[in-house]
């Protein structure tokens, strides 16, 4: 405007300048809220900024961190996926997306995302370490499911035991493995063991339909019709 004054443009420029100052103030407040671990307030402030600065990858990554802390993984994934597109070679975003999927028990999507990270940087230590873990787990689960389809229930049980050893920390995999072992025991006419294990799963997930069905089958084998 200094080089080419114009009344119309000056008004617009002043408006944008005021908005810019306001957004910088909100940004400082958002960072402060994040540092003080007030993630809800940080998200609210970042929402305001991102309504204007739609293409800011770093702000999306910061909001994703807040969502993770607030226990909203699906919203975090949405922001991280946007950040992965907005910033070239964003290995960190792919790594975080893969980790979240892994923690949620979605090993297939986790594997897919960590592969995207390694496409960008095959020497990325965190991604390679996660890739090895997820690939091993994925292979064991696929193999166990193949055994179930073939009616090889003892082999499937053994394979799901291996799944629990491969990932003892993330509870969702142990629960899922126990649910499938219960299914195998029920199919294998091992009713007492099936009832015990299905009950264990149902204490953790009372509305688990598969465990309810498999326990019902096991009760039938034992002539426990009321149950």
From TrEMBL:
Positions of the UniProt region annotated as Disordered: 1-21
Signal sequence coordinates: none
Chain's gene name: Dnajc3
InterPro entries, per the entry: DnaJ_C3_Co-chaperones, TPR-like_helical_dom_sf, TPR_rpt
Repeat (TPR) residue spans along the chain: 91-124
Composition skew (Basic and acidic residues), residue ranges: 8-21
Gene Ontology biological process terms, A to Z: protein folding in endoplasmic reticulum
UniProt entry keywords in alphabetical sequence: Disulfide bond, Repeat, TPR repeat
Source organism superkingdom: Eukaryota
Gene Ontology molecular function terms on file: misfolded protein binding; protein-folding chaperone binding
UniProt-listed Gene3D superfamilies: Tetratricopeptide repeat domain
One Gene Ontology cellular component annotation held by this UniProt entry: endoplasmic reticulum
Protein name as it appears in the record: DNJC3 protein
SUPFAM superfamilies: TPR-like
Keyword Acetylation: no
């Amino acid at each position: 405007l200094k080089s080419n004054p114009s009344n119309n443009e000056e008004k617009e420029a002043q408006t944008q300048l005021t908005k810019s100052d306001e957004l910088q103030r909100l940004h400082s407040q958002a960072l402060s809220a994040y540092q003080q671990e007030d993630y809800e307030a940080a998200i609210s402030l970042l929402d305001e900024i991102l309504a204007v600065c739609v293409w800011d990858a770093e702000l999306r990554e910061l909001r994703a961190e807040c969502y993770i802390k607030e226990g909203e993984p699906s919203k975090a994934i949405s922001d991280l996926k946007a950040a992965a597109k907005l910033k070239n070679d964003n290995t960190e975003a792919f790594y975080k997306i893969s980790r979240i999927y892994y923690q949620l028990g979605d090993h297939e999507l986790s594997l897919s995302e960590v592969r995207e990270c390694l496409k960008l940087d095959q020497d990325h230590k965190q991604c390679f370490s996660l890739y090895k873990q997820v690939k091993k787990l994925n292979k064991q689960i696929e193999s166990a499911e193949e055994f179930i389809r073939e009616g090889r229930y003892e082999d499937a049980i053994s394979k799901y035991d291996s799944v629990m050893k491969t990932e003892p920390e993330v509870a969702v995999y142990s629960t899922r493995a126990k649910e499938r072992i219960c299914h195998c025991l029920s199919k294998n006419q091992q009713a007492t063991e099936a009832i015990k294990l299905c009950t264990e799963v149902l204490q953790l997930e009372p509305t688990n339909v598969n465990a309810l069905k498999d326990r019902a089958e096991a009760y039938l084998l034992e002539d426990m019709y009321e149950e």
